[in-house]
């Protein structure tokens, strides 16, 4: 299978509560950045769609860069870049929820109340939206790769996401506990394919892991890969 385009998403998204506060997470953009750098050796056109990543992870060499802020913006950017023969790798950590209302003025804390209730609404799921779009529009030759960031039960949750998001591959990794997952850490991952293949990689630096993820995808998709 030959892909003509790769889309890599990276980093966290931000959902504003008021002009000075937002909901986000600790993703640095490191994993997505190294995947984008590595995949450029295999696929000619690389699109790097990123949220608020650290400065070092903003500009992978050889990629076209699109900066977004919210999960909805990331979804729109990904959908507008999807075409036939594209591999999408979602290493980003998009915020799953956003405030039902983003206040125009800073929320004041001087009203004597000890509690602030925040109503959140669910954000769109980018991978599910892409998966529906490619089947509705009959876009062929695409491959969807998700990441599953888990604090527990990696295999169970990763396989659940592989199925519910209708993906070809999911890369499971532990986050949150014992400084795992986010930022400048060595990490271990497990890649699960929709055809039942499993590959365990690490612990290694994210740079080394990214190389191995790209090598795995290159080899595994070269054998008459067709999206199931
Ligand atoms: O950036 P680093 O500091 O290097 O950290 C890397 C990482 C831990 C962020 C990365 O390895 C990782 O696991 N990224 C996925 C984080 C995540 O959001 O996982 P999730 O299990 O909530 O989501 C599953 C998949 O759905 C992911 O591919 C995610 O990008 C995607 N998603 C999530 C929410 C959403 N609204 N739409 C999505 O498509």
Description:
The chain is α/β, with parallel strands linked by helices. The protein has a single domain, classed as 3-Layer(aba) Sandwich (Rossmann fold). The chain contains five helices and twelve strands. The protein has helices at 30-39, 71-81, 126-136, 154-164, 206-222, and strands at 5-10, 15-18, 21-23, 45-50, 63-67, 86-90, 97-99, 120-122, 143-150, 169-174, 187-193, 198-204. The chain has an eight-stranded mixed sheet, sandwiched between helices. Strands 2-3 form a two-stranded antiparallel ribbon. A hairpin with a 2-residue loop joins strand 2 (15-18) and strand 3. The longest helix has 17 residues, at 206-222. The protein is globular, with a radius of gyration of 18 Å. The mean pLDDT is 93. It binds ligand PMT. Residues 11, 27-31, 71, 90-94, 96, 123, 125-127, 146-149, 161, 173, 175, 181-183, 206 line the site of ligand PMT. GO terms for molecular function: catalytic activity. Residues 5-217 form the DNA/pantothenate metabolism flavoprotein C-terminal domain. InterPro entries: CoaB-like_sf, DNA/pantothenate-metab_flavo_C. This is DNA/pantothenate metabolism flavoprotein.
Brief sketch in words of this structure:
Pfam families: DFP (PF04127). The protein is 26% helix and 28% strand.
What topology emerges from the helices and strands here?
Elements: E1 5-10, E2 15-18, E3 21-23, H1 30-39, E4 45-50, E5 63-67, H2 71-81, E6 86-90, E7 97-99, E8 120-122, H3 126-136, E9 143-150, H4 154-164, E10 169-174, E11 187-193, E12 198-204, H5 206-222
Parallel strand pairs: 1-4, 1-6, 4-5, 6-9, 9-10
Antiparallel strand pairs: 2-3, 7-8, 10-11, 11-12
Helix pairs in contact: 1-5, 2-3
This protein binds ligand PMT.
Residues 11, 27-31, 71, 90-94, 96, 123, 125-127, 146-149, 161, 173, 175, 181-183, 206 line the site of ligand PMT.
């Amino acid at each position: 299978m030959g892909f003509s385009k790769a889309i890599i998403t990276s980093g966290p998204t931000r959902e504003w509560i008021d002009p000075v506060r937002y909901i986000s997470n600790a993703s640095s953009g490191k994993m997505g950045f190294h995947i984008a750098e590595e995949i450029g050796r295999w696929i000619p056109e690389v699109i790097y769609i990123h949220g608020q990543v650290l400065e070092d992870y903003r500009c992978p060499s050889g990629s076209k860069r699109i900066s977004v802020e919210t999960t909805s913006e990331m979804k729109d950017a990904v959908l507008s870049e999807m075409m036939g023969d594209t591999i999408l790798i979602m290493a980003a950590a998009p915020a799953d929820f956003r405030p039902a209302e983003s206040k125009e003025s800073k929320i004041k804390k001087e009203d004597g109340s000890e509690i602030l209730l925040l109503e959140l609404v669910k954000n769109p799921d980018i991978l599910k939206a892409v998966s529906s779009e490619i089947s509705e529009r009959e876009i062929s030759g695409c491959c969807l790769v998700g990441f599953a960031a888990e604090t527990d039960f990696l295999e169970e949750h990763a396989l659940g996401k592989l199925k519910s998001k209708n993906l070809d591959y999911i890369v499971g990794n532990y986050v949150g506990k014992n400084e795992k997952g986010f930022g400048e850490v060595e990490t271990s991952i497990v890649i699960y394919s929709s055809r039942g293949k499993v590959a365990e990689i690490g612990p290694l630096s994210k740079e080394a892991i990214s190389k191995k993820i790209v090598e795995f995808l290159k080899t595994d998709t070269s054998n008459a890969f067709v999206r199931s």
